[in-house]
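re: that chain from earlier
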Amino acid sequence: MKRKLKFNVFTGIADIVMAFLIMISWLVVIFAAFGDAASDTHASGGIGTFFYICAGVMLIIHIIAFVKSRKAGISIVGHVLGIIGTACFFISMVLAFPAFVLVVLAAIFTLIQKNKGDSAKTNR
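^ sequence. v structure.
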């Protein structure tokens, strides 16, 4: 019997949104920094904080989904990739490209929701 978790679907969709946020993060922060230099404001700090908060929330969501998937017998590959990817971005925005790749892969594997016992059943 195939088991699917709605929380994994939510996590996969949130990964797609996070991948988009990671993709635009450098441009947004760089433009905010140029705006700060031109108008003597401090908007880039707040914008950077927004991206870090999003990464932290996604990290928590992946940890929760990891535990739920493990209990339900669903593959945890997507969540492990998501944890690593969002942690990379959370550590530093310099790691945005590897984080982007890992979060996209996490979204794919999370949305597949392959049960752990599927490969063993097909080999019999």
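The CA atoms of residues 19 and 104 lie 6 Å apart.
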